[in-house]
């Protein structure tokens, strides 16, 4: 493999995943991952543009940013690309009125959306709200539509909380796809439009950016398909088997102890990110 200096040449921007990279969510607001507060601070002091690119769909951006700030992160709402606001834009553009199969924590993001007589379903990481009744309500809405539209905020299989691995939105999205014989539209990673909107926000081209995430498919594979380089951290949902994934190979692995001490530059030494 080429030395880091070569692999990170021309780098102008960094997209950072949040859950599993900066912190593990959980009771009491979750826990910062060792080294990550300092790593974000160091990146923001560097010449690199930084954007947070998350599939978090249980919390509003305000709530998420509030939690992260309490853990010590330098982050503001304006720096976060998240799927709920992107979905709202699509709903408005297409005149869609959703049945919301979502967590109460993210409901405020949909305050301006008309939800009367639903003509589509929006599904997110609803957590405890994935009751039989709520999932069945969504199923019934879709089955009554001539052209059923299912919008899914991400399609992750699972994520890590401080208490352990948790089912994400993907398995429930798949259940509705299967029951209704339809294909969901995914808003969030690994959708190329989502990565592009994050890059646009910092004015950086895909070939000038690196994505740092813990999901080998959603973060690493998705970013690489957009022309970005992508690194996988060894925290969050990382599993050793990710290194032998049949389709996706990260451009590098990241050890936070090294990340904390080194910021990549166009002339990074071979030790950068290691
Ligand atoms: Mg993650």
From TrEMBL:
It is found in: Cytoplasm; Nucleus. It holds the Pfam family Hydrolase_6. One of its GO terms (cellular component) is nuclear speck. GO terms for molecular function: inorganic diphosphate phosphatase activity; metal ion binding; phosphatase activity; protein homodimerization activity. InterPro entries: HAD-like_sf, HAD-SF_hydro_IIA, HAD_sf, LHPP/HDHD2. Its EC number is 3.6.1.1. Keywords: Cytoplasm, Hydrolase, Magnesium, Metal-binding, Nucleus. It catalyses: diphosphate + H2O = 2 phosphate + H(+). GO terms for biological process: phosphate-containing compound metabolic process. Its cofactor is Mg(2+). PANTHER family: 4-NITROPHENYLPHOSPHATASE-RELATED (PTHR19288), PHOSPHOLYSINE PHOSPHOHISTIDINE INORGANIC PYROPHOSPHATE PHOSPHATASE (PTHR19288:SF44). Phosphatase that hydrolyzes imidodiphosphate, 3-phosphohistidine and 6-phospholysine. Has broad substrate specificity and can also hydrolyze inorganic diphosphate, but with lower efficiency. Belongs to the HAD-like hydrolase superfamily. This is Phospholysine phosphohistidine inorganic pyrophosphate phosphatase. It comes from Pongo abelii (Sumatran orangutan). The gene is LHPP.
